[in-house]
Amino acid sequence: MTEEQLHQLNALLTSRIAGLNAFSGDSSRKKDAEGLHCLTVREQEVLTLIASGYTRPEVAAALGVTRNTAATHIASIYRKLDIGSIAEATMLAVRWGVLG
């Protein structure tokens, strides 16, 4: 993705997430309190990539790891943040300022 595409994606996601925040509950506040520091540096890199729209194979290629390793990192992120989708990961990444 180009820099301009990332900025457009970030703007789109920010506006969409604003609407989703109305549905946030206590678990969302817990995730915010824990923040990024519950993730390893590598998991933070992976979070940035998936929140930027990279697919699992693209994450693997960008990091020079196997697809299985990328999938393991993503699963670890989901477990640590108690989330179940890229949309939720993206919402948190935007909230934490990971995307810009």
The fraction of residues assigned to DSSP E strands is: under 5%
Determine the N-to-C terminus distance: 14 Å
Main beta sheet strand tally, sense and closure: none
Order of secondary-structure elements: HHHHHH
Backbone CA Rg: 13 Å
Helix content: over 70%
Number of H- or I-type helical stretches: 6
How many β-strands, per DSSP? Answer: 0
Structural class, by secondary structure, is mainly alpha
Shape: globular
Low-pLDDT residue intervals, each spanning 5 or more residues: 22-26
Mean pLDDT across residues: 81
Provide a descriptive summary of the structure in words.
The protein has six helices and no strands. It has 100 residues and is an all-alpha fold. The model is unreliable at 22-26 (pLDDT under 50).
SSE layout:
Blueprint (H helix, E strand, L loop, with lengths): L2 H18 L5 H9 L6 H11 L4 H8 L3 H15 L4 H10 L5
Compact overview of the structure:
By secondary structure, this protein is mostly helical.
List descriptors.
100 residues; mainly alpha; globular
